[in-house]
């Protein structure tokens, strides 16, 4: 079947090509997201990958599986995009923030909707996979990966997340096995030594405990109960808000941010539950008295641990369309 589709695609049959690659697009999109840290950039990279694969199909010699070849094309497209992508300007807040604990290093990060993750095929894990699937899509891991040099990032994802063998990765990146092994060692050390906020909060809690924590968090947010909210946070919680660079480390700085900015007097919100990066998330809507509607204000993604909420990451409202969420809600809803 695959060979027939391949032959037809090589003869110029676009429908055969679409059928040939269709089952791989969802997982390629997630790989590109891990490489680039942006859902929109990942979509662009997948389209570039499919175009390059269509044009290069005649050069595919079938020495590797079609899936491996597509990952090769996708990885190199992402490496080229990273080199070509211009630096993005630092965002400016519309409010005066309290002094942050530090300025974040990764500002282009975007969340990834769980509804898109549900489209990814459930493949049997390779014995060489070193990063569990839920960890490999978490904001903590994706952020830590963005801090790596591009080649190290590619090697870490291909080896430790996808389970390709060192020899395969060497062929994919047109390098040597020794170079792959060296890059992987450095990448693992860098990710281990530079944990992202919320990455050290401990193992994921049992589902019942997690749901109770999520329910308590949702209640505190909807009630604008800052005291209860702070009580749900871990001592080392991190509050961040890409593309703004500000980070607040610990309960006291986080509480100051929530009191002085997020829940300052006059702010009225609605929160709709959703899921991002296999973590609980809430779409945020702010009452616009002039327009009489709830206006999209952002997305909150919570990282949970047995000790509580170990990180809250806030994204701007532009990401909500990917979650199938509206820009406004009527006051009657």
Q: What secondary-structure arrangement, pairings included, does this model have?
A:
Blueprint: H1 2-10, H2 14-22, H3 25-36, H4 39-56, H5 66-84, E1 102-103, H6 114-117, H7 133-136, H8 139-146, H9 150-161, H10 166-172, H11 177-193, H12 207-222, H13 226-232, E2 233-240, E3 246-249, H14 251-262, E4 269-276, E5 279-288, E6 293-305, E7 308-315, E8 328-330
Parallel strand pairs: 2-7
Antiparallel strand pairs: 1-3, 2-3, 4-5, 5-6, 6-7, 6-8
Helix pairs in contact: 1-2, 3-4, 3-5, 4-5, 9-11, 10-11, 12-13, 13-14
Structure report:
- The chain has 333 residues and is of the alpha+beta class.
- It has two domains: 2-193, Rna Polymerase Sigma Factor, Chain: A, CATH 1.10.1740.10; 207-330, Nuclear Transport Factor 2, Chain: A.
- It is built from 14 helices and eight strands.
- The chain has helices at residues 2-10, 14-22, 25-36, 39-56, 66-84, 114-117, 133-136, 139-146, 150-161, 166-172, 177-193, 207-222, 226-232, 251-262; strands at residues 102-103, 233-240, 246-249, 269-276, 279-288, 293-305, 308-315, 328-330.
- Strands 1, 2, 3, 4, 5, 6, 7 and 8 form an eight-stranded mixed beta sheet that branches.
- Strand 2 and strand 3 form a beta hairpin.
- Helix 3 (25-36) crosses helix 4 (39-56), helix 12 packs antiparallel against helix 13 and helix 13 packs antiparallel against helix 14.
- The longest helix is centred in the first third of the chain and has 19 residues, at 66-84.
